[in-house]
From TrEMBL:
<dbReference type="InterPro" id="IPR036149">
    <property type="entry name" value="APC_N_sf"/>
</dbReference>
<dbReference type="GO" id="GO:0001708">
    <property type="term" value="P:cell fate specification"/>
</dbReference>
<feature type="coiled-coil region">
    <location>
        <begin position="123"/>
        <end position="157"/>
    </location>
</feature>
<dbReference type="GO" id="GO:0030877">
    <property type="term" value="C:beta-catenin destruction complex"/>
</dbReference>
<feature type="compositionally biased region" description="Low complexity">
    <location>
        <begin position="278"/>
        <end position="289"/>
    </location>
</feature>
<dbReference type="InterPro" id="IPR026831">
    <property type="entry name" value="APC_dom"/>
</dbReference>
<dbReference type="GO" id="GO:0008017">
    <property type="term" value="F:microtubule binding"/>
</dbReference>
<keyword id="KW-0175">Coiled coil</keyword>
<feature type="compositionally biased region" description="Low complexity">
    <location>
        <begin position="85"/>
        <end position="100"/>
    </location>
</feature>
<dbReference type="Pfam" id="PF16689">
    <property type="entry name" value="APC_N_CC"/>
</dbReference>
<feature type="region of interest" description="Disordered">
    <location>
        <begin position="85"/>
        <end position="116"/>
    </location>
</feature>
<dbReference type="GO" id="GO:0090090">
    <property type="term" value="P:negative regulation of canonical Wnt signaling pathway"/>
</dbReference>
<dbReference type="GO" id="GO:0007026">
    <property type="term" value="P:negative regulation of microtubule depolymerization"/>
</dbReference>
<dbReference type="InterPro" id="IPR032038">
    <property type="entry name" value="APC_N"/>
</dbReference>
<feature type="domain" description="Adenomatous polyposis coli N-terminal dimerisation">
    <location>
        <begin position="1"/>
        <end position="44"/>
    </location>
</feature>
<dbReference type="GO" id="GO:0008013">
    <property type="term" value="F:beta-catenin binding"/>
</dbReference>
<dbReference type="GO" id="GO:0007389">
    <property type="term" value="P:pattern specification process"/>
</dbReference>
């Protein structure tokens, strides 16, 4: 009986020791849970602040993002372009009128001017559309970079968590919290920008449109250069013809002046001969000169 009591006593002591160890372990786990709860509370508060800041950022990005409905397509505005180029043409014509009397033949044809105006206006519209597409691409790239930076930061934090064989409640809670934040950021990115396929498709469409616009711009610039070269070729020939005509007019005017001068000298010589004839008549009264002689001489000289 004594031996049995001793064995029972030792068993009870062992059980009591095990219970005390288990109680100590439970107390340590409870303290760890308190610490984890404190950390979770702090992380929840930080997440709330970050989510509010993220919402503000998303709203700001939505405000900054260019909506395609605002730019349904490229529409020519001939009134604005014609008015601006009309004022430019008026200033050029006024300057040419003040500087030198340039003949009207030196100006380009009306159809050529209208074609160059429309081409220049369309060129401005293409450049505007290209700048808008480039701005959209840049804004979307900045948004994607921001989201990817956030996801990369969370991935680094998850990878930095310690890997232990024994289960740690605090490490597991931290990992779950970081994974939750990563899912939230990815969902916000897909809601804002769409999936990766959508983003890639949008970028390809914009790049293709930009390449087409650049081809059209190059073609229009070559057309304008050819029109300017044609205008420069036709202007000197017309100017030479007008100068030749002015030379002919000057020659005709000089010939007319010579004729007038000859007529004047002839009239003066006729008057002088009449004066001499009258003096002869007065000096010699016996010899009378017929009137038809003076008239005949005057007619012959004229």
């Amino acid at each position: 009986q004594v031996e049995a009591l001793k064995m029972e006593n030792s068993n009870l002591r062992q059980e009591l020791e095990d219970n005390s160890n288990h109680l100590t372990k439970l107390e340590s786990e409870a303290s760890n849970m308190k610490e984890v709860l404190k950390q979770l509370q702090g992380s929840i508060e930080d997440e709330a602040m970050a989510s509010s800041g993220q919402i503000d950022l998303l709203e700001r990005l939505k405000e900054l993002n260019l909506d395609s409905n605002n730019f349904p397509g490229v529409k020519l505005r001939p009134k604005i372009s014609m008015r601006s180029y009309g004022s430019r043409e008026g200033s050029v014509s006024s300057r040419s009128g003040e500087c030198s009397p340039v003949p009207m033949g030196s100006f380009p044809r009306r159809g050529l001017m209208n074609g160059s105006r429309e081409s220049t206006g369309y060129l401005e519209e293409l450049e505007k559309e290209r700048s808008l597409l480039l701005a959209e691409l840049e804004k979307e790239e900045k948004e994607k970079d921001w989201y990817y930076a956030q996801l990369q930061n969370l991935t680094k934090r998850i990878d930095s968590l310690p890997l232990t064989e024994n289960f740690s409640l605090q490490t597991d809670m931290n990992r779950r919290q970081l994974e939750y934040e990563a899912r939230q950021i990815r969902a916000a990115m897909e809601e804002q920008l769409g999936t990766c396929q959508d983003m890639e498709k949008r970028a390809q469409v914009r790049v293709a449109r930009i390449q087409q616009i650049e081809k059209d711009i190059l073609r229009i610039r070559q057309l304008l250069q050819s029109q300017v070269a044609e205008t420069e070729r036709t202007a000197p020939s017309k100017h030479g013809a007008s100068s030749h005509e002015s030379e002919r007019q000057n020659e005709c005017q000089g010939a007319a002046e010579i004729i007038v001068a000859t007529a004047g000298s002839s009239q003066s010589s006729t008057a002088r001969m009449d004066h001499e004839t009258s003096s002869v008549m007065s000096s010699n009264s016996n010899y009378s000169v017929p009137r038809r002689l003076t008239s005949h001489l005057g007619t012959k000289v004229e």
